[in-house]
Design goal:
174 residues, alpha+beta, 3-stranded antiparallel beta sheet, two-stranded antiparallel ribbon, 4 helices, 28% helix, elongated
Length: 174
Amino acid sequence: RFANNSIHQNVAERNGILNIKLVIGKKIVQTSLNSLEDERVKNALKKLYEILEFYHEDNDFISLPSYKEISDLSSYDEETASCSPERRAHLVKVITDEAEKHNVKASGQCNTSFHEIAVINSLGVSAYNNYTKSYLLSLVLDDFGAEGAYDYASPKISEINPYIVAEKAVSKCV
């Protein structure tokens, strides 16, 4: 993240999320965990079974999906997945340099992320996908309250042009 033409926060995070949906008959309960530890998963399943009896049946529910061939939808980009803080800082510097040329202040964010998702059920569905995301946002303000904003997102960091993001945000402000 950046504000007042300088980077003020660089965060790296690793997080795993497990979503569990338990379906018995037409009763459905679900939970999410940010831990993949065996004991936590077992406890979550146990609690789902315990609370299931208090849920009403969903008469609109027909079934979980059954097996079907799924095409590859991967939008993974290694360059984005391994993008360094220095590379993101360079993208931000393009924006802050443009803002400074016009005597305005730029704020915003630049982030990249890597995600994996798997779906498995008891009817034979087993699917996996990985994907990346990159995002660049610039919010520009002058001393008189004029503002401009522009952002761009893509699965590939190489498709984000910081010069265009900077020019469009600044041009809306000045």
